[in-house]
């Protein structure tokens, strides 16, 4: 059976993901270093991993396989999950795929280098919008339907 993994630290679409997963009767795992409320939903498991760099990412990457869906904004985690055959979405609904993950990693590395070279050039992307939320819901709906076909019960 398919599983929906949420890289839950700083994820703006946890409640939306829970509604869609519940409608599809798909197990959902919210993975975090802490600070999350437990859900009353029997399909939702809150997984608290030890503090440390990338521990939650490693937990997800070790478990996500073909037919699972992962929601993350972390590009290295996305690359590992794409390599394992999982469907991977950003919080705004954009898909990470085998065709685009290399470019995504390269851009991430470039931006890291640019920020390191110029301490005044620091983050601050565009704000998360209603349109992003709507695109995410549509993408998650499609991804969970495809996951059910790829990994039947």
Order of SSEs: EHEEHEHEEHH
Cα Rg: 15 Å
Summarize the main sheet: 6 strands, mixed
**Do you know the CATH topology?**
Rossmann fold
CATH architecture: 3-Layer(aba) Sandwich
Tell me the strand order in the biggest sheet: 3-2-1-4-5-6
Q: Name the CATH class.
A: Alpha Beta
Give the proportion of residues in helices: 40-55%
Overall outline:
globular
Secondary structure tally, helices: 5
Average pLDDT confidence is 89
Oligomer: single chain
Number of strands: 6
The end-to-end span amounts to 4 Å
Which segments are poorly predicted (pLDDT under 50) over 5 or more consecutive residues? none
Pairing-aware structural class of the strands and helices? alpha/beta
Strand content: 15-25%
Number of domains: 1
Summarize the entry for a quick read.
The chain has helices at residues 14-24, 55-63, 75-83, 101-117, 130-150, and strands at residues 3-7, 27-32, 44-48, 69-71, 87-89, 95-96. The chain has 153 residues and is α/β, with parallel strands linked by helices.
What does this protein structure show overall?
This protein is of the alpha/beta class and 153 residues long. The chain has a single domain (3-150), classed as 3-Layer(aba) Sandwich (Rossmann fold), CATH 3.40.50. The chain is built from five helices and six strands. It has helices at 14-24, 55-63, 75-83, 101-117, 130-150; strands at residues 3-7, 27-32, 44-48, 69-71, 87-89, 95-96. A six-stranded mixed β-sheet has the order 3-2-1-4-5-6, with helices on both faces. The longest helix has 21 residues, at 130-150. The termini are close together. The model has no long low-confidence stretch (mean pLDDT 89).
């Amino acid at each position: 059976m398919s599983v929906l993994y949420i890289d839950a630290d700083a994820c703006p679409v946890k409640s939306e993901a829970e509604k869609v997963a519940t409608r599809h009767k798909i197990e959902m795992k919210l993975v975090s270093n802490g600070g999350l409320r437990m859900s009353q939903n029997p399909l939702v498991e809150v997984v608290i991993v030890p503090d440390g760099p990338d521990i939650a990412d490693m937990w997800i990457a070790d478990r996500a396989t073909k037919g699972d869906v992962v929601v993350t904004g972390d590009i290295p985690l996305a690359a590992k999950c794409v390599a394992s055959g999982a469907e991977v979405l950003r919080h705004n609904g954009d898909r990470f795929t085998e065709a685009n993950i290399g470019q995504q990693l390269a851009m991430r590395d470039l931006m890291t280098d640019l920020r390191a070279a110029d301490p005044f050039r620091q983050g601050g992307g565009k704000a998360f919008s209603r349109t992003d939320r709507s695109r995410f819901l549509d993408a998650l709906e499609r991804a969970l339907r495809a996951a059910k076909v790829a990994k039947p019960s």
